Amino acid sequence: MTTTLEKTNGTAQPSTRTPQYRRPRYTVVENKDAYELRVEMPGVPRDHAEVNVEADQLVVTGRPPAPERPEGSRVLHRELSTVPYRLPLRLNVDIDAERAEARTENGILVVNLPIAEASKPRTIRVE
Amino acid sequence: MRLLKYEPMETDPFRSLESFFEPFRRSLREGWFEGMGSQSVPLDVEESDEAYEVRAELPGFTREEIQVELENAVLEIHAKKTEGGDGDREKVVREQTRRLTVGEEVDADRVKARLNDGILSVTLPKSEHRKPRAITVS
């Protein structure tokens, strides 16, 4: 008689599973020629942030790298999360994606989204 | 960024080992929303044989807008963003404060703080005489 022991894969309930992404806080300011989107992603360096524009959707993602710890250090308290950020936004205005620019400022990703020429309001002169 | 030296109030050489860590734990339990009218600062605390390391999230603040003080074994992190210049027209747009009791084993002269991508890291080295050391039996 043989006894087989099989390793079972983790059967964690969905409610206890770590979320895949979290939604960052953000603000949008409308300027004359462009929208400025500011996304709070503390701990995310420039090369760990990404902005994608596809059709009418804009997706911002950021992955905070695991903090460097000296060997043998112990965690006394933890409130910061290392879960990646993801912010999908629907654009209801045509954006000139070619001219869009992004930069980081002290943990805030600032995205400048120029409004496409075709979407700008224009005054039509009455002849 | 400003760092202040603190003066230890009492140094009892006979305190139990456990009591070194208790102020930290108690302070973390009471931590949230201590500052009147300002938001708290989320943070992590780690400990090694050499030092305590505090990492605090302060997105959007510059070095000049953050103040770190160590006084009477309490570490205070205070960040304030204003607009409209000095004097009466100055308006506080965002303010965050967090206080943490760090215990007296910290060497206040060697405390360092740095800001990177919206994360403030404060290193609080332990005093030489508080570090664990092996004593040779002769």
What does this structure look like?
The complex is a heterodimer of chains A (127) and B (138). The model of chain A has no long low-confidence stretch (mean pLDDT 85). With 127 residues, chain A is mainly β. Chain A is elongated. Chain A has a domain of 80 residues: Immunoglobulin-like. The N and C termini of chain A lie far apart (99 Å). Chain A has no helices and eight strands. In chain A, 17% of the residues are buried. In chain A, the strands form two sheets. In chain A, strands 1-2-8-7 form a four-stranded antiparallel β-sheet, with no helix packed on it. A three-stranded antiparallel β-sheet of chain A has the order 3-4-6, with no helix packed on it. By secondary structure, chain B is mainly β. Chain B has a domain of 86 residues: Immunoglobulin-like (Sandwich). Helices cover 9% and strands 37% of the residues of chain B. In chain B, the strands form two sheets. Chain B has a four-stranded antiparallel β-sheet, with no helix packed on it. Chain B is elongated and about 70 Å long. About 14% of the residues of chain B have low confidence. At the A-B interface, strand 5 of A face helix 1, strand 1 and strand 2 of B.
